[in-house]
Amino acid sequence: MARADAFAVQMGTPSLTLMERAGTAVADVVARSPLATRVLVLCGPGNNGGDGFVAARILAQRGFRVRLALLGDRDRLSGDAAAVARQWKWAVDEPAAVDLAACDLIVDALFGAGLARDLDGAARALVERMAAAGRPIVAVDLPSGLDGVTGQVRGAAAPARETVTFFRRKPGHLLEPGRALCGKVRVADIGIPEDAIAAVRPTAFVNGPAAWQHAFPRPAAEGHKYDRGHAVVVSGEAWTSGAARLCARGALRAGAGLVTLACPASVLPLQAASYAAIMTREAPDARALAHLLEDARLHTVALGPGLGAGEETRRRVAAAAPGRRLVLDADALTSFAGEADALAALLAGAECAVITPHAGEFARLFAGAEAVLGAPSKLAAARAAARLVGAVVVLKGPDTVVAAPDGRAMIAENAPPFLATAGAGDVLAGFAAGLLAQGMPAFEAAGAAVWLHGEAAREAGPGLIADDLPEALRAVYGRLFAQLAG
Ligand SMILES: NC(=O)C1=CN([C@@H]2O[C@H](COP(=O)(O)OP(=O)(O)OC[C@H]3O[C@@H](n4cnc5c(N)ncnc54)[C@H](O)[C@@H]3O)[C@@H](O)[C@H]2O)[C@@H](O)CC1
Ligand SMILES: [K+]
């Protein structure tokens, strides 16, 4: 954002104009809040406070009863913030002297993008009083104390009802706990030219069709099922075979031309009887899997769900990796606990790979990898992990991050809370395998799988179980394909 701001200034918009527009956008949001006539604006010592001075002036001019308190010394304001403070003709109060509950709404303009360390002392005390005051809060750029890069709270932050940010959201608006603290996020246009995106060349994106639709497979009219790829899903024993079934069904619904479940002999009849459209082959162990995969047409393999963690699963990963498009989930990842290097060595031989850990599997797999587990944010951790294993990493959660070894990343924002249900991860691995089977590049395939998974859950609605997700995908695909064609 600093580079985007600088670009706008370079292209001829003075930074003071940007600040005037930012403050105006904040005032507009406050003015639309119902029943807010007494507004308290809390300003900090930098440009975030400057935005607050502008908003306060505009609201006062529009007839609101505005009180303004400044954290710090008015004489020490500088630059644009000092300029807009001079245009504020009314009183500037000491925060300590103000009853924060004696207003209808608080504008939090203490700290934004310039937060440089954990809040402590008077700043932290003020943020804590603001949180305790129980008044609706409109945050300028970010709730003060929230780190816009990491989504983490530095010391303290007060939950906002709305957050007004400028030009584009920052990772901290999307990554938890930041997302929850921001409330409703509004992105205001302050006149930063769209060309700034090309100049800044961002590498982190919101996960949505815009991020991957260029690579999304569209079945050709004259197409053949073999053009849409053949995915193999490896099944465990009978008592855990449902996981592979969900994964296989996800792969087929996502569009793989053919899906084969590779199973132990004892599970063959069960799997064969479950879904007519899914084929079955006997492959009880890693050797048999290697033999099955001598057929080069079986170029995509998903394994992990319901396989059991241990040596045999490691051998299966080793058998499947060479030259394949791979999705590894669950037990396939836990089998390499603390040995991400060993996994990386195997994945180096794959055509491409996607790994889909949840937070627990991620912590186990990367135990001892300080660059990963010591990273300052979920985004940074996923990127470091992707670099380490040389694969696309899908770090799951309400704010699922998809990261590529080259640093590109997407953050999901469409997953409903009821998606956290048994077997949902197996379906996600299947969606990824179904897209990989159709030749979609791994980063885009993983992003699309995560987004489709969230949309399918919304389509199915509350009460969903994992079995619903592959079925709900049809309606989601209906809309997506109409959009892609239009
Ligand atoms: N051209 C621009 O850069 C624009 C910036 N805008 C606003 O400017 C903000 C960024 O302004 P700044 O870079 O001045 O940063 P901030 O105003 O967010 O914070 C910087 C100030 O806070 C102090 N500070 C940082 N961490 C602290 C801590 N933990 N405890 C106590 N004091 C701390 C710093 O010493 C500095 O005085 C954005 O969030 C946005 O609100 C908008 O006006 C739009 C245009
Ligand atoms: K703020």
UniProtKB/TrEMBL annotation:
InterPro entries: CARKD, Nnr, Ribokinase-like, YjeF_N_dom, YjeF_N_dom_sf
Catalytic function, reaction form: (6S)-NADHX + ADP = AMP + phosphate + NADH + H(+); (6R)-NADHX = (6S)-NADHX; (6S)-NADPHX + ADP = AMP + phosphate + NADPH + H(+); (6R)-NADPHX = (6S)-NADPHX
Keyword field contains Lyase: yes
Pfam families: Carb_kinase, YjeF_N
The protein's required cofactors: K(+); Mg(2+)
GO MF entries: ADP-dependent NAD(P)H-hydrate dehydratase activity; ATP binding; metal ion binding; NAD(P)HX epimerase activity
EC code: 4.2.1.136, 5.1.99.6
Record-annotated YjeF N-terminal domain positions: 1-198
GO biological-process terms attached to the record: metabolite repair; nicotinamide nucleotide metabolic process
Family: In the N-terminal section; belongs to the NnrE/AIBP family.
Function, as annotated: Catalyzes the dehydration of the S-form of NAD(P)HX at the expense of ADP, which is converted to AMP. Together with NAD(P)HX epimerase, which catalyzes the epimerization of the S- and R-forms, the enzyme allows the repair of both epimers of NAD(P)HX, a damaged form of NAD(P)H that is a result of enzymatic or heat-dependent hydration. Bifunctional enzyme that catalyzes the epimerization of the S- and R-forms of NAD(P)HX and the dehydration of the S-form of NAD(P)HX at the expense of ADP, which is converted to AMP. This allows the repair of both epimers of NAD(P)HX, a damaged form of NAD(P)H that is a result of enzymatic or heat-dependent hydration.
Name by which UniProt lists this protein: Bifunctional NAD(P)H-hydrate repair enzyme
Organism: Xanthobacter tagetidis
